[in-house]
Amino acid sequence: MGRRCLLALTLLLAFFACVPAAQAQTCSAAMTPLAINSVSPVRGTSYTGSATLTVTCTWGLINLAPNAQVCVNLGTGTNSTSQNPRTLGNGSNRLQYRIAGNAGYSPLWGSTATSTTPISLVLTQPALGTTASANITINAQTLASQFTVPTVGDAATTYTESFAGVATLAYSYYLLGSPPACSTLTPQTTFTPTITASVINDCLISANTMNFGTTGLITAERRTTSLLTVQCTNNASYRIALNGGSNGTVTARNMLRSGGTATQVIPYQLYTDSGYSIPWGDGTAGTAMYSAIGNGLAQPVTVYGRVAPQATGPVPGTYNDTVQATIYF
Description:
This protein folds into two domains: 22-199, Immunoglobulin-like, CATH 2.60.40; 203-328, Fimbrial-type adhesion domain (Immunoglobulin-like, Sandwich), CATH 2.60.40. The chain is 5% helix and 41% strand. It has one helix at 2-17, and strands at residues 26-31, 34-39, 48-58, 67-74, 86-90, 93-100, 119-124, 131-142, 157-161, 167-174, 189-190, 195-199, 203-207, 222-232, 237-242, 253-257, 265-271, 290-293, 298-307, 319-320, 325-328. The longest helix is centred in the N-terminal third of the chain and has 16 residues, at 2-17.
């Protein structure tokens, strides 16, 4: 009797050893870093970047639910107060952006935790194998017309946002019919997106014509002004150099008579100050460059021009010169 019981127990153990162990059905998500590069706020345009979100689901060797409904949630990040727009940050500085799992940014990427729309997809177990994956292109775009977003330390500045605990994955395996709604699923795991934008120093510059007017003999000095319009990244320092023009040097500028000879000129000078005491040039030969710090908006910069009294009258005609302004930042 004892031997028969021992034999039966041995056979029972052998039978259970042949049954495959149960395997957990799980899904996971991972995303490549998303970087928005070379953002120039002063240009007023939007800038974009993209990344790849990979969703992977696994099945056991034996299962009755070959489909997986997956909901990828992106909650409110560390620098945002809403999800439209979201906000990247550097210290107290902010850069607004939006993010979506589609090229048209509709719908935006959200989360059931904030009653917005997660990325939703269905994965199906392959005929051969236990793993299925899907890649989704994630697009991010800064908002236009953020002119006053600054750089820090007079250098390209990285703005970031993190999503600790709010980038989540909810999923459910099912057999037939419609997949369960994302709002009915509880998040089961998290992932860690990395989203950054690089804000650069940049400047735009334009110039108006300087006109000394109409005169006969130049027996007294003539003064006038014109404007440069400069728009540089907020907090970026810049300098503006003026070259010697087409007919002279930074210390001896000349307006040349149209159609005249090389000797038919009217000397003049440009200055950085209203006292006409600091010649504006390229920083050489006793001249100075104009320097300032940008605020992201268009700033008027006055150029002061002076023609000294002439010992002899110039030949009648129109005199002009072309001066090149170069901005360094």
